[in-house]
């Protein structure tokens, strides 16, 4: 079985994130980046599925030079090989551009032996659009089972539990398919020392848009189907009053709510 | 005036509040047409008309609800081709956002996710506001290609009643075999808590690790305030409260009038789900907890003392 896991390199959520002043794109140079934490769940799930059936896990990342770190970390966790698509023209791509590049790369990865599962995280922690997996499935013409909180695999049948807003659903589909998983599905492993050493010997292929046959004009900021007019830092919330409870904190709280006409 | 499609969010015909918000937004942009997928239109008709739907497209076919996402995206693409709307508004449920994603690729249309406000731009097309990076920035954007498709967050507008003609049109949907790939074999409705729904509630009272696993004080205060109950991921991961109540990046985003955080430290991922609340109040025994950076009012103290006293005080005032 061949599994491709799509992982994204994102600016650290706990660092001060910002936008490039010139073109309103996410500033990826100014802050430290890492493998999107939500994609660790996808890597972990891929490794579990692969371990059960002699499978191969290839990680795929699209992004600038630093994005290689995300692929590296996945290799350290245990993925077998990695593909890094890097090209200046990709800068500023939205979900349409990104999903196009991912789709072409998945097709290329599958050109020798076909891909059975394309695994994604539930959303990237920076863009948090959560739409790339659906777009990728649409482009690849594959079924999609997304936001899975639990997955079981029986030969080529995939059964997943989805915890929706109003109901819990059980969904069935057959491979090949695009699968995205939530942070409820597993506990991602930490790379072991052995894993870190082994990763050094694993292959990372670097592909450009030309390698994928993608015309640079189809991706990037200029090809974006949306345009950002304005970006503004939200004014910090003004500091309110903080009291220390010395026996009537609860009453003071209610007094405040009453004063704000909230009760 | 041009037609604006609104994908209706409903449970067996019970229209959710977000749909009335979307209809209200659609009215700003053009003539709202509700798109009702599935069974139960009899229960929905009145609400859709009351909130201004000039038209209701009814798409009722088992294929649309028995299989995930793809059939609905196909059906909506067909409807977009015949109705040529000026924009499509979609609620931000997981299912609807993916229908929107596929629809956008199919129709080569720009997609905007998680808008917290939508207004007509200079040319009449939607100008959206999004709140990004855990609410730290607001971004204004518009669609430059195809028909704007906008995923709208709950509480993005105050629903306004305006009678709409609600002319009904049953749409014959053609779903390809290729779309019937991921089948929903079982659907178990969630048990209702009897409290307001988390994403729709005017007040949310939530608890974190600081509850030590006992949510009774949090629930009692919530009930005194007529509020929904929320939880931090630490509380959910500990098995103290169901995941569907989690507030934050990987849970629900809430934007209530009042958010009361109890025993919650205020991690960035939690903030991402509640930072846009109108008023924020916190109870935490650690005066240095980051949640206090956000509050309009805070109490440094033990929630086990503060909450019961507050609940009692509310009861006393109500008499
Ligand atoms: C990718 C990712 C996604 C995440 N998504 C979410 C998300 O959606 N939602 C979310 O909430 N978190 C999320 N998290 C986790 C987040 O980083 C925090 O770990 C979590 O929010 C902490 O929960 P907490 O505030 O309840 O617990 P803690 O951080 O442990 O805080 C507990 C607080 O309770 C206080 N306290 C203890 N006892 C009492 C008492 N008796 N009375 C009053 N106060 C008391 C303590 O002073 C402390 O401030 C995510 C993390 C990652 C990496
Ligand atoms: N640049 C990228 N490279 C690889 N995978 C990506 C990229 N962007 C998004 N993905 C995948 O798509 C998922 C959802 O991303 P998003 O739609 O941006 O929230 C992520 O969890 C990844 O699995």
Largest sheet of chain A: 7 strands, parallel
Rough outline of chain A: globular
Annotation field: number of helices of chain B: 9
Structural class by helix and strand composition of chain A: alpha/beta
- How far is it from the N-terminal to the C-terminal residue of chain A, by CA? 59 Å
What fraction of the residues of chain B are assigned to beta strands by DSSP? 25-35%
Based on CA atoms alone, the radius of gyration of chain A comes out at 22 Å
Strand-and-helix sequence of chain A, N→C? EEEHEHEHEHEEEEEHEHEEH
The total beta strand count of chain A reads: 14
Largest interface comes to: A-B, 82 and 90 residues
Strand content of chain A: 25-35%
Low-confidence stretches of chain A: none
Name the strands of the widest sheet of chain B in spatial order.
9-8-7-10-6-1-4-5-11
Shape summary of chain B? elongated
Which strand order do you get reading across the main beta sheet of chain A? 7-11-6-1-4-5-12
Element order, helices and strands of chain B?
EEEHEHEHHEHEEEEEEEHEHEHEEH
User: Which runs of chain B of at least 5 residues are low in confidence (pLDDT < 50)?
Assistant: none
Q: What small-molecule ligands were found?
A: flavin-adenine dinucleotide, adenosine monophosphate
Instruction: Kindly state the percentage of residues in helix of chain A.
Output: 25-40%
Radius of gyration of chain B: 21 Å
Subunit arrangement of the protein = heterodimer
């Amino acid at each position: 079985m061949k599994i491709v896991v799509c992982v994204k390199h994102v600016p650290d959520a706990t660092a001060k994130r910002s936008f490039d002043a010139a073109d309103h794109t996410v500033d990826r140079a100014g802050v430290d980046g890492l493998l999107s934490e939500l994609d660790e769940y996808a890597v972990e799930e891929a490794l579990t599925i692969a371990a059960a059936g002699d499978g191969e896990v290839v990680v795929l990342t699209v992004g600038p030079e630093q994005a290689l770190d995300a692929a590296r970390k996945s290799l350290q966790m245990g993925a077998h090989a990695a593909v890094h698509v890097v090209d200046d023209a990709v800068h500023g791509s939205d979900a349409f551009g990104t999903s196009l590049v991912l789709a072409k790369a998945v097709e290329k990865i599958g050109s020798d032996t076909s891909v059975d599962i394309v695994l994604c995280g539930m959303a990237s922690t920076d863009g948090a659009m959560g739409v790339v997996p659906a777009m990728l499935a649409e482009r690849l013409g594959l079924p999609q089972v997304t936001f899975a909180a639990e997955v079981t695999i029986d030969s080529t049948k995939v059964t997943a539990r989805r915890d929706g807003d109003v109901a819990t659903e059980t969904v069935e589909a057959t491979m090949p398919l695009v699968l995205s998983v939530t942070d409820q599905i597993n506990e991602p492993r930490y790379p072991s020392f052995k894993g870190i050493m082994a990763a050094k010997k694993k292959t990372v292929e670097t592909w450009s848009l030309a390698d994928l046959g993608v015309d640079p004009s189809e991706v990037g900021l200029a090809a974006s189907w949306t345009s950002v007019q304005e970006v503004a830092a939200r004014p910090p919330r003004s500091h309110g009053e903080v009291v220390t409870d010395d026996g009537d904190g609860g009453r003071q709280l209610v007094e405040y709510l009453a004063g704000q006409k909230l009760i | 005036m041009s037609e604006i499609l609104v994908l209706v969010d409903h449970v067996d015909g019970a229209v959710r509040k977000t749909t009335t918000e979307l209809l209200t937004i659609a009215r700003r942009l053009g003539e709202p047409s509700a798109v009702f997928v599935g069974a139960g239109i009899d229960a929905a008709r009145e609400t859709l008309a009351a909130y201004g739907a000039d038209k209701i497209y009814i798409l009722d076919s088992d294929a649309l609800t028995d299989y995930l996402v793809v059939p609905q995206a196909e059906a909506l693409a067909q409807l977009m081709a015949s109705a040529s709307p000026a924009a499509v508004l979609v609620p931000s449920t997981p299912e609807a956002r993916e229908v929107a994603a596929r629809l956008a690729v199919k129709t080569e249309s720009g997609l905007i996710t998680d808008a917290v406000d939508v207004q007509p731009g200079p040319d009449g097309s939607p100008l959206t506001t999004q709140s990004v990076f855990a609410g730290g920035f607001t971004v204004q954007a518009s669609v430059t290609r195809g028909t704007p498709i906008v995923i709208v967050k709950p509480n993005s507008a105050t629903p306004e009643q305006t009678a709409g003609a609600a002319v009904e049109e049953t749409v014959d949907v053609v779903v390809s075999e290729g779309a019937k790939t991921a089948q929903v074999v079982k659907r178990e409705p969630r048990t209702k808590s009897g409290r307001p729904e988390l994403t729709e509630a005017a007040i949310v009272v939530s608890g974190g690790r600081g509850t030590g696993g006992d949510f009774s004080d949090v629930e009692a205060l919530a009930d005194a305030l007529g509020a929904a109950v929320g939880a931090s991921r630490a509380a959910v991961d500990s098995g103290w409260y169901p995941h569907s109540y989690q507030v934050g990046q990987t849970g629900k985003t809430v934007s209530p009038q009042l958010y009361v955080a109890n025993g919650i430290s205020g991690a960035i991922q939690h903030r991402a789900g509640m930072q846009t609340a109108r008023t924020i109040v916190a109870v935490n025994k650690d005066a240095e907890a980051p949640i206090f950076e956000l509050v309009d009012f805070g109490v440094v103290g033990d929630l086990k003392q503060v909450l019961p006293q507050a609940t009692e005080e509310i009861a006393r005032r109500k008499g």
